[in-house]
Design goal:
Layout: H1 8-14, E1 34-40, H2 47-51, H3 64-76, E2 80-89, E3 94-102, E4 106-115, E5 119-128, E6 137-145, E7 153-161, E8 169-182, E9 187-203, E10 206-217, E11 221-233, E12 244-254, E13 263-277, E14 280-290, E15 293-294, E16 301-302, E17 319-320, E18 322-342, E19 345-363, E20 373-385, E21 389-397, E22 405-410, H4 413-418
Parallel strand pairs: 1-3
Antiparallel strand pairs: 2-3, 4-5, 5-6, 6-7, 7-8, 8-9, 9-10, 10-11, 11-12, 12-13, 13-14, 13-15, 14-18, 16-17, 18-19, 19-20, 20-21, 21-22
Signal peptide: 1-20
Protein name: Surface antigen
Keywords: Signal
């Protein structure tokens, strides 16, 4: 969910690409029975990690549409730089060979993230993208602010997987230790934070969510929280989706079981829709957070920058308890995802041009008014890469913002929007 991984390998590889692989090698006759399925290239990945994503099966008619969906599902695992299919036909049926090129798994690398209050933070990370071949990702990171250098420091451990003990239970664990001067909220943030989230997939696209966190803020006290929600994720891919919908509804009680510091409820609705036309991908999204109750200043919401409104800079004087943000974005696929290798590391990349318009309400009263509204337009370029999803270089403008603002962001904006503070 908030995995923040950065490697200079990704950036160095952009200028030195060796393209390889085909999505479908050979031809298969539609409807011929599948006699056998085998895999090649799974040096570190367990076969069942791949098998649970397949739609074509032995004894069933072959479908190229099924392979198209399989390929998207397998790409979403973020374990492979390339996936292809070789089909061998006979009078009795077809034999399928799925060929995989695995991404680099152990990555000692620079680590980076960008938050509204700290700006860019850089450091070191040691990551494993596929522990025991079970699609379990674990990272340990140390980061510090760039400007001023060492003014903010953070240590983090992340672990996640879409399955648990062979069951369709996605899980995500985080631990963060922060020692930071928060420019937006003007206080010395010395805190510990742990978070566990589990998603139980009840059927194909629908999941029930459960999450619990514990945060201790030095000089202020403990803020535990407990949340439940439902998720409909019908996107064609979790990485760079082109078609489909994402709908999440969540209710979280902050101060659950211990309300000495904070006691409020967050109602959250996260909505994302995607539709392609040729090389163009239209995305429409919105995020609503409504937070009645008693809230401390360090949980106030701020907007401005690559993760919220790209025509504005983050501003400590503009904050609110509640927010509603909408976005309409057009993406043009300049370069489709392509695998490449550099110094023995298997990676992939793609390029998209983007333009869009976005607006938001940020308010403190029971209902917002037009004085709480801001809007901007933006354009830029996105580089599609492993682990980080994308690097976004964008310029935004709003008459209220005063001038063109250039910002660099990580992940899809809809992801960083949710977790932009920490």
């Amino acid at each position: 969910m908030k995995r923040i991984l950065s490697s200079l390998t990704f950036l160095l590889g952009i200028g030195a690409v060796a393209f390889a692989g085909e999505s479908l090698a050979g031809t298969c006759t539609e409807g011929k029975p599948v006699q056998s399925i085998r895999f090649s290239g799974l040096d570190d990945t367990q076969p069942h990690v791949v098998e649970r994503e397949l739609l074509n099966a032995s004894g069933k008619p072959f479908s190229s549409e099924n392979f198209r969906i399989e390929k998207l599902n397998l790409e979403s695992l973020d374990l492979f730089s390339d996936i292809s299919l070789v089909c061998t036909e006979s009078a009795e049926g077809v034999e399928l060979e799925y060929r995989f090129t695995e991404l680099l798994h152990w990555i000692p690398s620079p680590a980076g993230k960008k938050t509204d209050q700290d700006g860019w933070m850089l450091g070191l990370a040691l990551s494993h993208l596929n522990v025991a071949g079970e699609d379990i990702r674990v990272e340990a990171q140390y980061r510090t602010s760039v400007s001023p250098l060492f003014d903010s420091k953070e240590f983090a451990i992340y672990a996640s997987s879409p399955w648990l003990l062979g069951l369709p239970l996605s899980w995500n664990f985080e631990f963060l230790r922060t020692d930071s001067w928060d420019d937006l909220r003007n206080f010395d943030d010395r805190s510990w934070y742990s978070h566990l989230e589990i998603g139980a997939r009840l059927w194909k696209d629908f999941s029930f969510l459960w999450a619990a966190s514990y945060r201790y803020v030095q000089k202020y006290g403990a803020v535990p929280d407990l949340g439940v929600g439902v998720l409909l994720d019908a996107r064609d891919s979790k990485v760079d989706p082109h078609l489909g919908a994402y709908e999440e509804f969540r209710v979280t009680r902050y101060g659950a079981f211990y309300a000495d510091v904070e006691d409020y409820i967050e109602f959250l609705w996260d909505n994302r829709l995607y539709y392609p036309m040729g090389r163009f991908i239209t995305g429409v999204s919105s995020l609503l957070r409504y937070r009645p109750g008693t809230q401390m200043f360090f949980d106030r919401l701020h907007q401005g920058g690559a993760n919220t409104l790209r025509g504005f800079d983050p501003d400590s004087s503009i904050h609110g308890r509640h927010e509603a943000i909408w976005n309409v974005e057009e993406r043009f696929v300049l370069l489709e995802r392509h695998p490449f290798s550099i110094m023995g590391a298997n990676l992939f990349w793609g390029v998209q041009l983007v333009a869009g318009v976005e607006g938001s309400f940020l308010w403190n009263t029971q209902t917002p008014d037009w004085g709480d509204y801001r809007q901007s337009v933006y354009g830029g370029i996105h580089f599609i890469i492993p682990a980080l999803d994308r690097i976004r270089i964008e310029a935004g403008y709003s008459p209220d913002g005063g001038e063109i603002k250039v910002a660099v962001g990580l992940y899809d904006k809809n992801t960083s929007l949710r977790w932009r503070s920490r």
